[in-house]
Amino acid sequence: MNIARSSAKLSVAHGLTAVITFGGIAVFANWLPPSELGVYFLFEALVGVLTIPADFGIRGAVEKRISEGNEPGKMLTSALSMKTVPLAIIGGLVLALGGYINGYVGADVAVLLIVAMIGHELYQLGVQIVSAELRVGETAVLRLSHKVVWFAVGYALLQSGYGVKGLIYGLLAGYIVPFVWANYKRSTPFRRPSMEQFHSLTAYSRYNFVSALSGYVYGWMDVLIIGFFLTSAHVGSYEVAWRVTAVVILGSNAIAKTIFPQVSRWDANRAIERIEKLIPRAITPSLVLAIPAFVGAMLFSREILTFIFDAEYATAWLVLIVLMGEKIFQSVHVITGRSLKAIDHPELAAKAAVAAIAVNLVLNVALITQFGLIGAAVATVVSFGLNTVLCIRYLSRYLTVRVPWRELGWIVVASIGMGVVLVGVRSVVAIDSLARLLGVISLGAVLFSAFALASPTLRTQAFQSIHSSNRRAPRVKRSRKVTSGWQIFNYNRCGDWVT
């Protein structure tokens, strides 16, 4: 697997996904007030939270075990068998508590919630199976199709008068289409399950469940608590700010998803030095957008929310700044956290997650009741910062984690230089329209790129990554049998990013 090429594909797909998501939320925010858009965000939050016990870490275990190349067909069938029980239990509970759920969300959505939960699990499982087959680049179009279908169906139904329910139906359709597509792409066959595979999956999933819980709690706990203590309008404003900041870690997520199966395979082959070389080279591009984006948010957060969305959402301008700073932590965590699980230590990722969840819960309740939306943002920063530090510490027990301080220092300097110039531009040009805002953002991107590429090290890494991503991998005849670990190892010795 060519890591740079796969990362490039995922980065492009994530970039397009960001454009669609960002543009979609902007369009829908101009059609729906924060209170109605908040209903959709609460529904999406419940889907995310309910899929935690419905999955119980099995999806991550499937990706890990199939990527190791040991009885992948039996692993797949065993995983599907295991998932039916928690899905049925959670679905039954949702039906039983449907009245309470509908009252909390503010719409009749209990049955749709069950359908969305099942659709989410099938979609994610399909993508992770293809990824585990060391074909991460091919998952790019699957991930992109999810948002394309969501926006197309949601927009059409919104115009047809379905209101916020149209967005929910679009979300359901966005799960179904990529699942069918992923099932078509899948090369791992179904085989008779066995107790050995059940035990193997359970041994990994019980810890992966806790670390996965951290991700969903981090993503949705603040929204759910805001919905409980405040109003759906507050939910809408906060989540819009969150979606803006989510754009800056798309590249980091693409890199993390790409390196997971490869690190897993290298760990199985005891190629520790290759993993140690990969991690710092993954951290630098992960932060190359997060740091300058934080500087940009400090300058233009109010204008971003006002002109791209609506003036009603500008109340969350300080939330946007705080959450953008938090993305610096997350950009590092997605690399170190997934690397920790890839080297078969999900129990340590789970340990870090438990600590972060406890801090997140306590701080959210305490700070939201006292300070409102900004309290939720601060709670998120503190808890996820703790999670990141713990993951780095645990990873250091097994690997030599080298932080690329020189490259990161240059990125900080380039970001500050960009910010200084933009402050001067702002003093002479009023940012009073969307066109001027986009113009200033584009200028900032050009300035940062110019300052960053003035570093010989960053310039060399950028050109090497572009060259590697454009290099065509040798054609390998694909069969139903997964290629052996030794074959993959030898192929990577001459074909991937880090050699």
Quick overview of this protein structure:
By secondary structure, this protein is mostly helical. It is built from 20 helices and no strands.
What does the model show?
By secondary structure, this protein is an all-alpha fold. The relative contact order is 0.12. The protein folds into two domains: 3-187 and 194-403, no CATH class; 404-471, no CATH class. The radius of gyration is 22 Å and the shape is globular. The chain has helices spanning 3-31, 34-55, 58-67, 72-96, 98-105, 110-132, 139-159, 164-185, 195-229, 232-246, 250-268, 272-287, 290-309, 317-342, 346-371, 373-395, 405-428, 434-452, 456-470, 485-495.
Oligomerization state of this entry?
single chain
Instruction: Note the main sheet.
Output: none
Beta content: under 5%
Low-confidence stretches: 472-499
SSE run = HHHHHHHHHHHHHHHHHHHH
Measured on Cα atoms, how large is the radius of gyration?
Answer: 22 Å
| End-to-end separation | 13 Å
Overall mean pLDDT? 78
What is the tally of helical segments? 20
Given helix and strand content, the structural type is mainly alpha
Helix content: over 70%
Give a quick set of tags describing it.
499 residues, disordered C terminus, mainly alpha, 2 domains
